Input
Amino acid sequence: MSMTDILESEHRTGKIKLHGPEDFEGMRKAGRLAAECLDMLIPHVQPGVVTDALDRLAREFILDHGALPACLGYRGYTKTVCISVNHVVCHGIPSERALREGDIANIDVTAILDGWHGDHSRMYGVGPVAPRAKRLVDVTYEAMQRGMDAIKPGATTGDIGYAIQTYVEAQRCSVVRDFCGHGLGRVFHDSPNIVHFGQRGGGERLRPGMFFTIEPMVNLGKWQVKVLSDGWTAVTRDKSLSAQCEHSIGVTETGYEVFTASSAGLFQPPILVG
Ligand code: MF3
Ligand code: CO
Ligand code: CO
Output
């Protein structure tokens, strides 16, 4: 989501909600389903597959499991997933475009199960990819992981952004500024914003029971992006490659719980290097 959109979101409560044990159980189920959906897509991400076919598979999977696709109809969006290929940063719209060998693609899915939102995205390699594309995917995954590892009661949202930004920039990559993670739960996009850059100690203090996403977008080139005339597709201005990884998490008494972990251990699908 863009930061402006989140600030204007109609369901936003403005207050950061603290959740109890039953809410954690709800998020576990929704998050697991989102992860299973992305597990299911792995063998289908092949050269020649059109992204709309992947969208259809995701939609059917979610509906077959008694859940709803959160993006379908969300602010006029007409698909179940976002598929963002190569220099597309986020919110790529599934279409009749076919994936090609060497592409890297982010697939972002949000399932609503029993009212709870599981929001999750991963990077997929289409056949063998260039070493620099693989490196970008690895840096992005590690950035998300370092952001999560900053989470514990008493730390702040700024600590998360600081951990991500300092790591990414040390790898000579850049962090996208225009989109952020977000609180979620019964609401798709809520407080707090999780900005993927920032100052230690800045932002909101983390407390047990907060639910939010961490979803850094990392570019091989500069961080600037623009949104295409379809109103959704965000691309890097310098056409450099971009990658993203997203988990939905809950703050616990001692740290955090990942709701969208793959029980099959497939979070980071093996990406072949050509
Ligand atoms: N899943 C995206 C996120 O991480 C939101 C996509 S909204 C859509 O927040 F409408 F583009 F699908
Ligand atoms: Co999200
Ligand atoms: Co998402």
Notes: The radius of gyration is 17 Å. The chain has a mean pLDDT of 95.
